[in-house]
């Protein structure tokens, strides 16, 4: 693969400068640079001098010395103007990145990392609202493209140098990762609308490269498997490389001949490798070919990086031409002093964070919430929801009376129904007994034991109706019993809610009298919170002091040899707040020890409070449930009354019908008896035979 033709690379156009009221000679040399490394050097120097200038003269947005600065936006060709020296810097930095991308796309294959560095600095240090071509999305796209192409250059060199197969595979996999990031940006609808027609060309090339370099990665993973004599793995890696290369070929339609040539060359290499590996494995090694997804994925090795831009590096920018306005040494010393302040803050924050971690873990293990460590206040008054129910019952004084009356009426109707059905049942039993006596007198054989005697049609109908009513009554009786239980359960609670508030207040249980233990625990928890708040406040004060601490004026007049001493003197202003912080951190151990002791004493109280709270909540819920059940009980009671009133009417009619049927049956029995007696011969004179007695 070291002889594979090179793939083309994407490069960016340079922006064109417009109006800027600056020295004409300087302006001309900065915007019309040659397209070579000398041009890059000129842009860097100009960028650095602009940095020196803007730190001394108020030429920023809305500042006194601001002047109009115009540049052409790349994609639309429109002229964009801002009165801000930083806009000039941003455009110069963009051109620096674009020029590096142009040089990187040439045969020498260098400079891509410099381009990525320029775009990264532009993204991180300048506003994104200057123009579309310097928006956050476009800069991210440029950065990933440049890093991908830089990694691609490294891949070319690695293959030329015959580096180890596994390393080449990882380098190639990282090329794929960078291009995937770039492709995601290109597929973004907002980015696509900004780029216009060029978006499609770039996207096609990048998508093709993703598959192409994935094929290269798996080709070298196959070569590594070959070196390790893993012949089954070798086959699957070469097969995967072939599949991905075929995808790249499909996506390469319309690409220049250089791309087609590279793809044909690579196909010859991978195709030959695959055919040879498959043939050897089929006829010689006979190793199982694993599925690709069972093998470890190739992790990219990012060996390129965006080279940092330092606008104050004298080796790049040359001497400061504005040094007489403000000594550069003052800026350098100020930077060193900022480093000292940053170190001081890091040291303090390391101690604070360590203590905070211990404190957080300790408090989590305790599970103590200062807001709910005791709820004694809740027991000192009737809960609002109960007050609401009491108030509602106070305007309905007959609530309990109505419920009791409803229960009584229901019981009365129930009893009447039961009495009527019992009387009907008794009549039927008596009739059956008389019928049996008649059969015995007539000398007829009684039916088998347990079999009822046949009834007259009238009584049979009564018996059938009675059985139906008894069945309905038995089913309703269970519901009626449950309703009475519910009424008896809730009626006491309703009486309580209708009574004096003192009785309602006394209904829930009272908490244990351990106020001293609770107060001590709450006091220490308040101490913990006070310690936290003070620590946070001191940290904030320290940060604000550091942020506002600018000694540039002092540094301008200071002797360079005295800088260290001056720094020490200036940093003493932080000693007092550091002492306060140290005291706060040192107090934590004692506070947590006191909290541990208090928590031990609180354990028994905590359990008792939890039990009381549970009982309290249960009582309140029960009382509320009784109030809310009232309407339902009244409704069901009325339904029960309606049901039994209807059943009582039917039972009364059936009772009358039963009486009439029994009388008719008795009269019929008497007629049968008289006929039988007439058929018999006259009796011998004996004592008179007693007649059938009626009940």
Q: Could you characterize what this model shows?
A:
With 695 residues, the chain is an all-alpha fold. It starts with 16 loop residues before the first strand and ends in a 16-residue tail after the last helix. Among the domains are: 1-162, alix/aip1 like domains (Serine Threonine Protein Phosphatase 5, Tetratricopeptide repeat, Alpha Horseshoe), CATH 1.25.40; 167-300, Serine Threonine Protein Phosphatase 5, Tetratricopeptide repeat (Alpha Horseshoe). Strands 1-2-3 form a three-stranded antiparallel beta sheet, with helices on one face. It has helices at residues 24-31, 37-54, 85-104, 112-125, 136-160, 165-187, 189-195, 198-227, 231-251, 257-285, 314-317, 328-366, 384-394, 399-441, 457-498, 501-506, 515-548, 552-557, 563-571, 575-679, and strands at 17-20, 69-72, 79-82. A hairpin with a 6-residue loop joins strand 2 (69-72) and strand 3. The model has no long low-confidence stretch (mean pLDDT 81). It has 20 helices and three strands. Its main location: cytoplasm. Residues 666-695 are annotated as: Disordered.
């Amino acid at each position: 693969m070291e002889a594979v033709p090179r793939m083309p690379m994407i490069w960016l156009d340079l922006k064109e400068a417009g109006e800027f009221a600056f020295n004409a000679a300087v302006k001309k040399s900065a915007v019309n640079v040659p397209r070579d490394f000398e041009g890059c050097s000129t842009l860097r120097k100009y960028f650095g001098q602009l940095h020196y200038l803007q730190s001394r003269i108020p030429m920023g947005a809305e500042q006194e010395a601001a002047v109009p600065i115009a540049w052409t936006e790349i994609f639309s060709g429109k002229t964009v103007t801002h009165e801000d020296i930083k806009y000039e810097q941003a455009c110069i930095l963009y051109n620096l990145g674009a020029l590096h991308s142009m040089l990187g796309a040439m045969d020498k294959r260098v400079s891509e990392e410099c381009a990525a560095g320029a775009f990264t600095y532009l993204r991180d240090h300048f506003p994104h609202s200057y123009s579309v071509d310097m928006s956050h999305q476009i800069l991210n796209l440029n950065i990933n493209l440049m890093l991908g192409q830089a990694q691609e250059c490294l891949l070319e060199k690695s293959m030329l140098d015959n580096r180890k197969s596994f390393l080449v595979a990882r380098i190639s996999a990282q090329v794929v990762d960078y291009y995937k990031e770039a492709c995601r940006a290109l597929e973004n609808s907002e980015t696509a609308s900004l780029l216009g027609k060029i978006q499609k060309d770039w996207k096609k090339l990048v998508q093709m490269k993703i598959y192409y370099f994935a094929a290269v990665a798996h080709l070298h993973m196959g070569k590594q498997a070959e070196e390790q004599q893993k012949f089954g793995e070798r086959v699957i890696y070469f097969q995967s490389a072939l599949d991905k290369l075929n995808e790249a070929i499909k996506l390469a339609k319309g690409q220049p001949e250089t791309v087609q040539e590279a793809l044909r060359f690579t196909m010859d290499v991978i195709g030959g490798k695959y055919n040879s590996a498959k043939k050897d494995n089929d006829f010689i090694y006979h190793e199982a070919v694993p599925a690709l997804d069972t093998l470890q994925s190739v992790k990219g090795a990012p060996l390129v990086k965006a080279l940092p831009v330092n606008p104050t590096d004298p080796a790049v920018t040359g001497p400061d031409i504005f040094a007489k306005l403000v000594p550069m040494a003052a800026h350098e010393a100020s930077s060193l002093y900022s480093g000292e302040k940053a170190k001081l803050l890091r040291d303090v924050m390391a101690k604070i964070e360590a203590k905070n971690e211990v404190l957080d873990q300790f408090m989590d293990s305790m599970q103590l919430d200062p807001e709910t460590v005791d709820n004694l206040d809740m027991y000192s008054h009737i809960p609002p929801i109960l007050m609401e129910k009491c108030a509602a019952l106070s305007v309905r004084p007959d609530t309990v009376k109505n419920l009791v009356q409803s229960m009584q009426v229901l019981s009365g109707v129930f009893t009447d129904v039961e009495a009527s059905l019992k009387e009907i049942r008794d009549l039927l039993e008596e009739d059956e007994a008389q019928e049996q006596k008649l059969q015995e007198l007539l000398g007829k054989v009684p039916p088998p034991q347990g079999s009822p005697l046949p009834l007259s049609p009238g009584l049979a109908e009564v018996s059938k109706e009675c059985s139906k009513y008894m069945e309905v009554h038995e089913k309703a009786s269970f519901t009626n019993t449950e309703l009475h239980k519910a009424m008896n359960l809730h009626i006491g609670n309703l009486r309580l809610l209708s009574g004096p508030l003192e009785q309602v207040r006394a209904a829930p249980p009272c908490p244990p009298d351990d106020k001293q233990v609770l107060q001590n625990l709450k006091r220490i928890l308040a101490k913990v919170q006070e310690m936290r708040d003070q620590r946070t406040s001191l940290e904030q004060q320290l940060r604000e002091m550091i942020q506002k601490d600018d000694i540039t004026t002092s540094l301008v007049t200071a002797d360079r040899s005295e800088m260290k001493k001056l720094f020490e003197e200036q940093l003493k202003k932080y000693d007092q707040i550091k002492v306060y912080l140290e005291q706060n951190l040192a107090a934590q151990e004692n506070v947590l020890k006191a909290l541990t002791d208090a928590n031990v004493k609180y354990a028994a109280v905590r359990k008792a409070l939890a039990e009381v709270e549970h009982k309290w909540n249960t009582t309140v819920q029960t009382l509320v449930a009784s109030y809310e059940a009232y309407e339902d009980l009244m409704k069901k009671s009325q339904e029960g009354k309606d049901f039994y009133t209807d059943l009582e009417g039917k039972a009364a009619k059936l009772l009358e019908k039963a009486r009439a049927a029994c009388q008719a049956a008795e009269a019929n029995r008497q007629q049968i008896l008289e006929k039988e007696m007439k058929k018999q011969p006259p009796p011998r004179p004996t004592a008179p035979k007693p007649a059938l007695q009626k009940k």
